[in-house]
Amino acid sequence: TGTYEPAIATKDIEIDRPDGTLYEDVTGTSSHWYKATYYNSTTGVETSLDDAIACKAAESEHYTSLWDIRKQAGFEEAFGIKDETISDYREEAENEFDSAIVSIYVLPLSTKPKLVRQIINLLAAGNLLIKEYGMEADVEISKSGQRMLDRAYMLIEKIVDGTLKLLDGDGNVLSLQSSATLASTSNVYSSADDKGELYNIGDEQFSFKDPDNPRS
Questions:
Q1: Which end of the chain is more exposed for a tag (fewer CB within 10 A), N or C?
Q2: What angle do CA 21, 42, 8 make, to 5 degrees?
Q3: DSSP 141
């Protein structure tokens, strides 16, 4: 039992979008139910809430929405790029982020800080721009994607070395691993500071390194 709050959001119907108009409530949970009414701005007529079919929400375990990644990449109207494709890049970005902080913070994170959302948006959108367009297809777009990745890796580096801390809604630091040691990891995210890793995850083209001559 419960009541429906009127007009929690409005969206224009995307008539050119083959998979329909999407709506994502970032504050919703799996216990929420939703109804939609339709408003004709020409006639001023709105359909009845009583006639609307209730739909149960699915709780998201993701750090960010597919729509936020679309906006970050500038693909709001690029309907040819399916949500399934963006979802793959989101999952890749989330896995990469979790792997970077797992020795510092207890996972899963108890809340989803805005900073983490920003990082996932940058990682997913950056890879989307580079890999979907390719370096030869549009150099400027690929450069834009690489800049997003560089920014994301810089933020991750600062989280891992403790310069930036992940906070909850009350400003408290999220739970740390009991044996967490904050140390710089610039050698992981920057080819300029490479100390002999097999590859740098910030580079589009991975290259093997000679440990005795890491800048080769």
A1: N
A2: 45
A3: H
What is the reported pLDDT for 20?
Answer: 66
Say whether both 5 and 72 belong to one domain: no
pLDDT at site 18: 57
The answer to whether 61 and 108 have CB atoms below 8 angstroms apart is yes
CA 183 to chain centre: 25
Same domain, 26 and 40: yes
The whole-angstrom distance between residue 91's C-alpha and the CA centroid of its chain comes to: 8
pLDDT > 90 in the chain, percent: 40
Q: Contact 112/63 with Cβ under 8 angstroms?
A: yes
Residue 213 has a pLDDT of 55
User: Is the separation of the CB atoms in 101 and 160 below 8 Å?
Assistant: yes
For the chain, percent of residues with pLDDT exceeding 70: 69
- Report phi then psi at 169, rounded to 5: -65, -20
Spell out the alpha helix ranges (H) of 33-133: 66-73, 83-101, 114-133
Q: Which domain holds residue 11?
A: 1-60
